[in-house]
Specification:
It is a single chain. By secondary structure, the chain is an all-alpha fold. It has two domains: 79 residues; 206 residues, Hypothetical protein af1432, CATH 1.10.3210.10. It is built from 13 helices and no strands. The protein is elongated, with a radius of gyration of 24 Å. It binds fe (ii) ion (FE2). Fe (ii) ion binds next to loops. It holds the Pfam family HD_5. Keywords: Membrane, Transmembrane, Transmembrane helix. InterPro entries: Cyclic_di-GMP/3'3'-cGAMP_PDE, HD/PDEase_dom, HD_domain, HD_GYP_dom, HDIG_dom.
Length: 288
C-alpha cells in the first residue's frame, strides 16, 4: 500500500482509539485528584465507556447486516449472472428516490436494502428457467412469477429488513392492478414496492444487455413518465426524474464491469423475453 494511502487510511483509523483512550486516561487522572476522588472519576467515565460499547455494538451489528445482504446478492448474481450488478444499481436508484422524497436515513437505508434484494427469490427458481433460450411455456412463466413470493419467504424472518420485505413481495405489482403476485392497485401497493418498481425498470432500460443496447437515461425517463399512472406511481417517477436531473446517473457497478475480458456474455435469460413482452403493454422490470 502506498505511504500516502496508509497515512490517509490505516493511520488515522488506528490513531483514533489510542487518542480516545489517552484522553479518557487523562480525564481519569484529573478527576481522581479532584475533591470527590475515585467516585467522580467512575461517575463520569462509566457512562462514557457504556456509550462507547453501545456504539461499537451498533457498528458490529451494521457490519453483520451488510454481510448478510452481500451474501444474498452474491448468491443471486451467481444464479443469474446475466443481470449481475443490477441489484446494486436498483438499490442505488431506490436510495436516490428515497432522498428526493425526504425519507430519514434509517428508512432510506432499508429502501436501499429492498432495491438490492428485490430479486432474491430467483434463488428459488430453477436455473434452467432463468437461462432458458427459447419461448417460455405458460407453466414456466408461472414458476418464474413466483419469485417475489419465494423472496418474501426467504427474508421474512430477517427483522432488520423491515419494510423491505413487503417491497420484495410486491415489486412486480402495477398501479392499475395488472401486476403480480396479488394484482394490488394504487395505494394498496406498499410505498417501498412502488419505489423499487421504478428503480428496477429504470436500470433494466439503461443497462446494456447482450440482446440490446442500453437506452439513454433521458429516453428511459421518458418511458417511465409515459407509463406513470398505469404501471408506475407518478410520485416515484417524478422523484427519480428530479434526482437524476440534479445528480445525473453514475452507477457504482456498471453492466460492463461484470463481464471479465475475453468472456462471452451468457445467453439472454428469460428475464429479457419477459421484459420485451412487457414492453408491449408498458415498461418491463429488470428481473423476471
Ligand atoms: Fe423481479
Amino acid at each position: 500500500m502506498p505511504v500516502r494511502g496508509a497515512w490517509r487510511g490505516l493511520f488515522p483509523r488506528s490513531l483514533a482509539p489510542v487518542a480516545v483512550h489517552g484522553l479518557a486516561g487523562l480525564m481519569m487522572a484529573v478527576l481522581w485528584r479532584s475533591p470527590y476522588g475515585p467516585v467522580a472519576a467512575l461517575l463520569v467515565l462509566l457512562p462514557m465507556y457504556v456509550s462507547c460499547w453501545v456504539f461499537a455494538q451498533y457498528h458490529r451489528e451494521r457490519a453483520a447486516h451488510q454481510a448478510t445482504i452481500r451474501a444474498l446478492v452474491q448468491a443471486v448474481d451467481i444464479k443469474d449472472g446475466y443481470t449481475r450488478g443490477h441489484s446494486e444499481r436498483v438499490g442505488q436508484a431506490s436510495m436516490m428516490i428515497a432522498r428526493e422524497l425526504g425519507m430519514d436515513d434509517e428508512r432510506a437505508e432499508v429502501l436501499r436494502f429492498a432495491g438490492i434484494l428485490h430479486d432474491v427469490g430467483k434463488l428459488g427458481v430453477p436455473t434452467r428457467l432463468l437461462r432458458k433460450d427459447g419461448p417460455l411455456t405458460p407453466e414456466e412463466r408461472r414458476i418464474i412469477e413466483l419469485h417475489p413470493e419465494y423472496g418474501h419467504e426467504m427474508v421474512r424472518g430477517i427483522g432488520f429488513l423491515g419494510e423491505a420485505r413487503s417491497a420484495i413481495l410486491h415489486h412486480h405489482e402495477r398501479l392499475d392492478g395488472s401486476g403480480y403476485p396479488y394484482g394490488l392497485t394504487g395505494a394498496q401497493i406498499p410505498e417501498f414496492a412502488r419505489v423499487v418498481a421504478v428503480a428496477d425498470a429504470f436500470d433494466a432500460m439503461t443497462s446494456t444487455r447482450s440482446y440490446r443496447r442500453a437506452r439513454p437515461v433521458a429516453a428511459a425517463l421518458e418511458e417511465l413518465e409515459r407509463c406513470a399512472g398505469a404501471q408506475f406511481d407518478p410520485v416515484m417517477v417524478g422523484a427519480l426524474v428530479r434526482a437524476l436531473g440534479r445528480q445525473g446517473w453514475h452507477p457504482a457497478v456498471t453492466a460492463d464491469e461484470n463481464v471479465p475480458p475475453g468472456v462471452c456474455p451468457p445467453a439472454p435469460p428469460v428475464s429479457s423475453r419477459l421484459e420485451s413482452r412487457s414492453h408491449r403493454n408498458g415498461v418491463g422490470g429488470g428481473g423476471a
